[in-house]
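Risk register update: the risk of archive-format incompatibility is retired. Evidence:
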Amino acid sequence: MMLYGQDLLQLVYTYVKDKALAQDLTQEIFVKCYEAYPTYKGKSTLKTWMWRIAINHCKDYLKSWYNQNIQVAVNAGVDVQASSNVEQQVIQQDEQERLAKTVMQLPIKYREVIYLFYFEDYTSKEIAVMLSINENTVKTRLRKAKQFLKEQLEVNEWI
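Archived output:
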């Protein structure tokens, strides 16, 4: 939990878009990992194995009756890096919030590859294994997601 807790929480947040819910699901995922650990065969790294469990758990939650029928308020917050200049800090916060908001608007299949590739630094091959899809599919999703982000950020630039 100490090694992967924050990273796993961030991954879960990209799926559910709610901090408190992400924390609850992350705890459930750690319990699942603990219970399933005897079945871990070592074919992949422990982190990759846990990520696969987390991704499946998040997808199951998103398909669940509870998620489909219960409305939950979303509070998205972005941390601001320390900066000596207040003006730069405000600009940076605005840009981070805009980017985070735009990424969160992506369909889940694009959001997950963007998160894993850019925020977790996984290769497209590793992502393909985690998501159980073809490596070329990962590359296509990354390309489409980047194009969507570029278009949305350019459109919002003029608003």
